[in-house]
Amino acid sequence: MASGERARHWQYSELPGVDLLRARYVRKTFVRHTHENFVIAAIADGVEVFHHGGGDQYAGAGTLALVNPDTPHTGRAGVPEGWRYGAVYPSPDVVAEIAAETTVIRGTPGFVQPVFEDPYAVGLVHRVLRAADEGNALAADTLLRVVVTRLLRLNGGALPRREVRTAGARVAARAREVLEGRMVEPPSLERLAGELGTSPFALLRAFRESYGMPPHAWLTDARVRRARRLLDAGTAPAEAATLVGFTDQPHLNRHFSRIVGVPPGAYQRERKNVQDVARRLRLPSDVWQNRQLSQTYGPMEGRMPPSYGMPSASESP
Fold it and tell me: Where is the signal peptide (predicted)?
């Protein structure tokens, strides 16, 4: 990574259905992509800019960048020093379970505003990550439920239902099915349009309207998603690259890093080793904790790290 940039993307077995991330990026740019899970990114320093919903959104320190599943967005630094953040990525099933138990939202729950100012919730996200690092399952699970409940109550609602009504939307859905089934050797835009009985520009327009990006960008995103599943299952990065249609591992590395935020090798190592590390470090010392923060975020320069203790009884979500 570029000088000063650090990232760790991992999972904790006691938080099933949740991905975890700590990162500091300066020159990093994320291409337009989507996530199968929710994005709850807590900005600690700097500013992140991400294109979402037709315009640029600015998330600074004390705010959260919130993205619903399958929502196209980008990401880049909004200031020269970049941005530092921690993020949790709970699955739709996890969020739906929490919403059903703790909110009155009816339908599919989601976030309303993509940028939400709430320093307390920012602290909660970082405390989830610290608890996961420490192997403290009770705290990690509790804090995750508290922060998701809080954000749904303050900035949540039912997501609009996506219904395929127009002829263009139906063509786009069929094109997506073709690309999913022929990911390794996809057809050209002209050939795909011909197979679906439409013109290339009509297909391009319909696909962008339905999925927020052109077919080739959607295909890259889908390939990276499938590569993640293969890496999670233990497939070597070079083999995963060819299985999803990339020409070689460097080709996978480039796109994977621009969507996930870390190279595929580092991504796989964290998923393979994190539980062994957690077992060895169930009660880490303050020295170890500070070293982990330093490795992930860079020198703290006298700043106090975020509080990772449990919320008090008066600090209800």
Answer: none
Q: Are 90 and 17 contacting, i.e. CB atoms less than 8 angstroms apart?
A: yes
Q: Which of 34, 10, 62 is nearest to 50 (CA)?
A: 34
pLDDT in tens, 257-291: 999 999 999 999 998 765 455 444 444 444 434 44
Residue 8 CA, chain-centre distance (Å), reads: 12
| DSSP at 315 | -
Residues pairing with 29 in the sheet:
76
Of 47 and 317, the structure prediction assigns the larger pLDDT to 47
Q: Is the pTM of this model over 0.70?
A: yes
d(CA 146, CA 115): 19
Q: Which residues pair with 39 in a beta bridge?
A: 67
Q: Single out the residue of 71, 39, 37 nearest to residue 54, CA to CA.
A: 71
Q: Helix axis angle, 119-134 relative to 137-155, nearest 10°?
A: 160
3-state secondary structure 215-277: HHHHHHHHHHHHHHHHHHCCCCHHHHHHHHCCCCHHHHHHHHHHHCCCCHHHHHHHHHHHHHH
**Contact between 259 and 33 (Cβ < 8 Å):** yes
Q: Is 17 exposed, middle or buried (0-12, 13-18, 19+ CB in 10 A)?
A: middle
